């Protein structure tokens, strides 16, 4: 079992830090740092829901994702300048939104829409999974506030979520890939799970080389272990913040 | 084990029909019908590759996906009129392209780009997996022709591909969901595999209700069985067509 | 009187085939094949009319036109990817819409909008005239259904329509140009007529060489003869289908 | 034969005025006034041709058309604000460009592109035909200058062009419709002819009511007479200006 | 004190001409010519205000600015073709709109929106200041008409406006720069003032070389003198026109 | 002299904090905090310059500006989703770019383009002036690094820059407006100055009420004092960072 290029064990997460309420204009925000990857997740509430939900008493949760142009080693052109969101962006924000919706009971929200902005300040691999983990924390904080303010009923949050990437790098299954690993991985898989140990999303991609059933099992185990650690950390930070 | 709304067994595919060379302007084309879902997959060759590959001797395979406006029960607005491809479209065509690239040796292609257009003539669930299955067949036919014409080396195709959707409907794992099932599924998973029984893509989504490890195993088994049948059928049809 | 490159007489149509209800999600559809040109025309009904007609009790008929990227000998870039419909597309769909509206009594429709999608599956010249001929048949079928269902009054259709192209190729007036003829024509004219022998649209263009009054008369005669055949064929197919 | 709403005879043009070199930044310009319709036509030269003509020694002529927002009775939203040219605009500028190209020998131009901007300062019907008549004059002036400067060979202009609209209003064929007539016409036809009495474009549209062969003949006669007057006027003005 | 390239004194305006009601479809229009710069300013009224003002009884004034492609020495690509307004355009029309709003009492207008289109027919420097001066005149004329028609209360106009550019060219402060001066200016400043001698906008830019407080004072004096002349001229022309 | 709503004196800046190299992917970055306003300024280098500078040996400096959606009290829609940058954004980034270019000798740079991204993390008034002050610091740090690496000559920076807003609030001239002040200001002015006490940009706007010459003098004095403090602070922070 070889050490990785940054001396981590294959089953080791990068260092994770979470700052709740990093900014104060939003209803709730969370800066999550996973190694050098840094994502600011902010929750805003709007008093209207998308057209297809109007008058049904149900709420909605959606997400938007973007990277600051200078977040990456090579500057990434700004999507607002190019005039549209790229395919990767759209795919990621749909994933974040779907995952978050699996963790709430939309019917208990009333006709409120929560928009979770995930803006990547610095990117070093795993920005979509860091976004989901951070967004789930910010969402929990936001909903606690809305509940306290009497704007939503209790019990909107049905479970906590976290996400990690796993992959096969140089033939070895590893947890939480950074950018250099991600660039050379044979298989890349993002896993979102909840506190009950259930899967919310599994997105495994083998552009490099298809993978076997045995490898799939190994990857899912690694993911479960990493997600467990992230969920514990999140609970602890939310508990301390609430005091 | 209850029958499904269309009398299929949970592990039964819909009827599948494949017409190779349905149109004749493209290098190769394939009309695939899976139940009422009908997708026309056409392969075009271009003598230039994307900028980042120029001068490297390597080829490229990409895909575009679209639905005719009248393919769906409710007419879908035309993306060219709205002025951009929607998020769902972009996500699907990225999936098709990635899958196809996993089945070819780009370095043996030389500097040729193959564009596979997957146009949905009628949509009744499973359009992305039908697209992958059909696109793989059209691609194999196209590459056989290019090889024969001396434009690519032998052995560009490294494996055949097929894809199916599986999901959990009314608590029961089922194979190859049609639109009514897809709309009410708790879990929806698309699986792409190759002839060696390896995974190329797994995209499992639980917007309705997260799923357990046991359910995951069941779904993957169903997918493997369906993909096996599709791969056999494809081989047979290609063999007959070549005569 | 020389034979044409495909052995047709100057006044001879290509082979025409029409399949009504080729797809089943739309209110009515029609696949029209004119030689190798194949267009799928589908009619969808919407319960709202454009803003300027609201509350006036009148209906509307509009058309959209597109070509599948692989419909042409050289792949045509997808308009949704380019982010807008091209000039040729817009011009053609305006022509189709205007022509169809000349054949209905909008006031008898009530506030319903019918959208006719003309999607070119394969293009070998004459796609706009095939679209009009096919769209008129699909529209007649759709309106018969709406009338039967009590959603529109009787008599919405005021006349049947058909269209052909005529042109001057190598100095000789010819009927129903295919792509090779169209590319080298000195004059290209599209004519839309109704069953009463009246003109609905005449669009004659001489990018190659301007044309004389005598040539104009010859072209209009050829068009009238071709349109007569198409109208008879359409009537017969509709009559058989209704049984 | 009834007088028209502005006291003109059915076969009478509105008053026409032409000011050559109305502006001085362009290579040549022409303000054409037909009744209250006023169009500024300006010709600019660029030293490169479109991609498909590069290296072939041939030139190109193209046109762009636009209306100032305040040119119409009801302000028309600015296309640059809406983010794209409308269908009507595209259709018109394609017509102008095609017509102009029919009047020049592109091969004698060398690799120069002439762009003719037709900007409608005030619109009272017939803007597209006024644009063609004015653009042809500006183009002739521009080419005379380029020839004098040795930038193109002699003989690029192969014929003079002019255009008028004709139509059927209250059942009567009339020449040169103004906006009130155009709005209520049963048939609207734009005709472009050259000095040899040949047709360059005929675009007849019957959204109101289809028209018979007899009516077509009447309309074409009216058009020919109007175009003859416009061509004479143009020749005279160019001759005076050259002095 | 050196003469300028066109023989003007440093403190001398170019020749100014104003034609009110140059076009007649708009509510009011004004063609302003400052040297070779020519801008057509047209005012249109709409019976609805922007969303944020609805139901508040207040009106709105906004401006749009554009240049005809052939207005400049080198043809400028049309913004409607490029699909969006450029940064310079947006900046200028925001400036015009803000300035005009400073000169009216929006609350006395009632819920009417006035759109002032400033279309540059020919550009030779100072198009934005000519636009403001001309737009203010057209606006005063339009409001006089609306007041006369009983559509707005008296006293909507609170002051007359005019604008000029000043700058430092070859180290010397000058008034009303033409294009050659503007291109080589070290400092470029646009000043908008009202009849009370107050500032409405000051936009001074030193891309060439930063400027001192002394130079600022000189520039502001020049601007005040030029604006005074423009305001007198405007008053005189409006007075004559009203007769 | 009344205290302001946040207890500041009229001539008092908000608290300012600067963190150099807040992120590490860019060539240099700077997080500037002015009260609650927080802007991340990052400098990226590209080895090609805009087309009009190619082959001239000169460099270029440009800026892009954006606000995170959740930076404001009410969430601001994301420009990449709307498909274009808004007018305010374009105006601000043009101002930042122009200002920065006034502080460098582009000819000493060689053919390098520096892009300065100013991304507003939190907005409480004065984001454009904070952007300029922060961007100037990041640019100085970046150029010091490029000079050290031998990629540009010495002396590219010709002066340090800083910017503040001043305005008239409740009739009183004040320095460094926060959002509540900005929203109710009668006059809003942004001033950019360099270390020599020269003006680089003055942008004064009176949408509320035009301002007199005396008020202009007061505002410019306040601005000069604030800019002096910002320049001292910047010098000190750069000096400490370099150690």
From TrEMBL, chains A, B, C, D, E, F:
The lineage of its organism: Bacteria, Bacillati, Actinomycetota, Acidimicrobiia, Acidimicrobiales. GO terms for biological process: rRNA 3'-end processing; rRNA catabolic process; tRNA processing. One of its GO terms (molecular function) is 3'-5'-RNA exonuclease activity. Homohexameric ring arranged as a trimer of dimers. Belongs to the RNase PH family. It catalyses: tRNA(n+1) + phosphate = tRNA(n) + a ribonucleoside 5'-diphosphate. Pfam families: RNase_PH, RNase_PH_C. Phosphorolytic 3'-5' exoribonuclease that plays an important role in tRNA 3'-end maturation. Removes nucleotide residues following the 3'-CCA terminus of tRNAs; can also add nucleotides to the ends of RNA molecules by using nucleoside diphosphates as substrates, but this may not be physiologically important. Probably plays a role in initiation of 16S rRNA degradation (leading to ribosome degradation) during starvation. This is Ribonuclease PH. Residues 12-142, 162-225 form the Exoribonuclease phosphorolytic domain. It is an enzyme of class 2 (transferase). It comes from the Bacteria. The gene is rph. InterPro entries: ExoRNase_PH_dom1, ExoRNase_PH_dom2, ExoRNase_PH_dom2_sf, PNPase/RNase_PH_dom_sf, Ribosomal_Su5_D2-typ_SF, RNase_PH, RNase_PH_bac-type, RNase_PH_CS. Phosphate binds at residues 88, 126-128. Keywords: Nucleotidyltransferase, RNA-binding, rRNA processing, Transferase, tRNA processing, tRNA-binding. Its EC number is 2.7.7.56.
């Amino acid at each position: 079992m070889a050490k990785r290029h940054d001396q981590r064990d294959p089953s080791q997460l990068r260092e994770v830090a979470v700052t709740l309420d990093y900014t104060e204009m939003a209803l709730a925000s969370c800066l999550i740092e996973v190694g050098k990857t840094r994502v600011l997740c902010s929750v805003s509430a709007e008093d209207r829901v998308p057209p297809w939900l109007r008058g049904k008493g149900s709420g909605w949760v959606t997400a938007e994702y973007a990277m600051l142009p200078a977040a990456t080693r090579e500057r990434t052109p700004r999507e607002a300048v190019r005039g549209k969101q790229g395919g990767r962006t759209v795919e990621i924000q749909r994933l974040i939104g779907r995952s978050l919706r699996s963790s709430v009971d939309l019917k208990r929200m009333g006709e409120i829409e929560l928009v979770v902005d995930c803006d990547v300040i610095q990117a070093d691999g795993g920005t979509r999974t860091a976004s989901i983990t951070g967004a789930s924390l910010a969402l929990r904080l936001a909903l606690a506030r809305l509940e306290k303010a009497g704007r939503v009923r209790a019990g909107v949050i049905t479970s906590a979520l976290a996400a990690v990437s796993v992959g096969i790098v140089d033939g070895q299954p590893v947890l939480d890939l950074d950018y250099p690993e991600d660039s050379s991985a044979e298989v890349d898989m993002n896993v979102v799970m909840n506190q009950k140990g259930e899967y919310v999303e599994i997105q495994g991609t083998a552009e490099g080389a298809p993978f076997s059933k045995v490898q799939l099992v190994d990857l899912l185990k690694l993911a479960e272990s990493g997600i467990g650690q992230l969920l514990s950390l999140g609970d602890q930070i939310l508990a301390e913040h609430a005091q």
